[in-house]
């Protein structure tokens, strides 16, 4: 048609555009919450779509947690509120003087309770630029605002979004190599709980995640995987690269600590001693029993040979004595004479 109009109830949509072939889009006017039918008018023909549109109240932000991030960014922030399900796009904006950073959040990433009373979405904080004459070093408070479609909700007067120093890791200049024992790994980190929470942290052994167990201001503990994943070739930018699950295809896996957008190589975990550590007790017991059996067998064999040799010697001695007696008796009863015959 030459002219298209879209009505939400009795309210006419604004800025009608043909985005694709046979597709129209428009902006809703300000409407009180309720359920409205949708009517399309093309030239003089009225089309009732027999579909309803639910109009909710404007989004309400009830809670933002946390409101502190480390300077490198990447901290997980959760925004909770009401009536987020009617939002199409959300723009999160951080700004300080001439610096600003924007994050786009799709409506598919919005979580809503079954009854629709509460909604929430997550995002990760952007990193700050390096300190300079125009940008101070941390700690620093930045402006923060949310843009729900065309409605901007400024939160600068409600909260202060603060950036602080990155967490400090006690990393050796030469990453140590630790033996895998099946026990938990402990990592010392300073000011951890001030700048991060558990969802901000990941610990990897090779390509497998080390499951976090405890999280305190002094550090974390995690349970390493029972075995390493082998290196796998991945395609990146049409080039085949090696995924470093192990160190040079060995039984040693790199330990990587990831917090926010940053990743640190803090050491290596060696699975070379896995078999010896896992079966050391069994092996020792087996060796003890084997040595005992061998010792007993040697003793038995020795005793057997000793008694056998003794019996042989005894038999030889008896035969010798018997032979000597027989020879003596033979000489005593002999009829041979050495006298020679001669004339009388």
Keywords:
single chain, 344 residues, Immunoglobulin-like, 6-stranded mixed sheet, 5-stranded mixed sheet, 3 helices, 27 strands, elongated, transmembrane helix, Ig_E-set, membrane, Plexin
Helices and strands in order:
Elements: E1 4-8, E2 11-12, E3 14-20, E4 23-27, E5 34-42, E6 45-55, E7 60-65, E8 68-70, E9 76-82, E10 89-96, E11 99-106, E12 111-112, E13 119-124, E14 140-148, E15 151-154, E16 161-164, E17 168-169, E18 177-179, E19 185-190, H1 192-195, E20 201-205, E21 208-209, E22 211-215, E23 219-223, E24 233-236, E25 239-242, E26 252-259, E27 262-270, H2 274-278, H3 280-332
Parallel strand pairs: 8-16, 18-27
Antiparallel strand pairs: 1-2, 1-5, 3-4, 5-6, 7-9, 9-13, 10-11, 10-14, 12-13, 14-15, 14-16, 17-19, 19-23, 20-21, 20-26, 22-23, 24-25, 26-27
């Amino acid at each position: 048609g030459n002219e298209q109009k879209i009505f939400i109830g009795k309210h006419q949509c604004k800025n009608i555009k043909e985005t694709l072939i046979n597709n129209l889009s428009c902006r809703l006017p300000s409407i009180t919450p309720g359920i409205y039918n949708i009517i399309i008018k093309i030239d003089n023909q009225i089309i009732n779509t027999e579909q309803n549109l639910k109009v909710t109240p404007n989004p309400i932000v009830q809670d933002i947690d946390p409101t502190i991030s480390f300077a490198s960014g990447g901290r997980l922030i959760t925004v909770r509120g009401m009536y987020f399900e009617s939002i199409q796009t959300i723009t999160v904006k951080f700004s300080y003087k001439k610096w600003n950073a924007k994050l786009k959040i799709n409506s598919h990433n919005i979580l809503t309770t079954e009854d629709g009373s509460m909604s929430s979405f997550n995002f990760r904080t952007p990193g700050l630029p390096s300190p300079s004459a125009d940008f101070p070093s941390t700690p620093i408070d930045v402006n923060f605002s949310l843009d729900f479609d065309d409605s901007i909700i400024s939160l600068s007067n409600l909260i202060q979004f603060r950036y602080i120093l990155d967490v400090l890791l006690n990393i050796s200049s030469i990453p140590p190599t630790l033996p895998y024992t099946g026990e938990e790994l402990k990592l010392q980190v300073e000011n951890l709980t001030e700048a991060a929470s558990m969802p901000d942290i990941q610990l990897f052994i090779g390509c497998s995640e080390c499951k976090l167990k405890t999280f305190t201001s002094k550090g974390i503990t995690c349970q390493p995987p029972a075995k390493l994943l082998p290196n796998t070739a991945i395609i990146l930018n049409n080039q085949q690269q090696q995924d470093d699950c192990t160190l040079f295809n060995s039984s040693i896996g790199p330990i990587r600590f990831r917090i926010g957008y940053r990743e640190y190589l803090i050491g290596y975990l060696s699975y070379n001693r896995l078999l010896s550590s896992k079966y050391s007790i069994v092996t020792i017991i087996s060796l003890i029993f084997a040595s005992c059996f061998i010792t007993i067998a040697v003793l038995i064999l020795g005793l057997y040979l000793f008694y056998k040799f003794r019996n042989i010697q005894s038999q030889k001695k008896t035969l010798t004595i018997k032979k000597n007696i027989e020879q003596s008796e033979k000489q005593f009863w002999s009829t041979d004479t050495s006298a020679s015959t001669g004339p009388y």
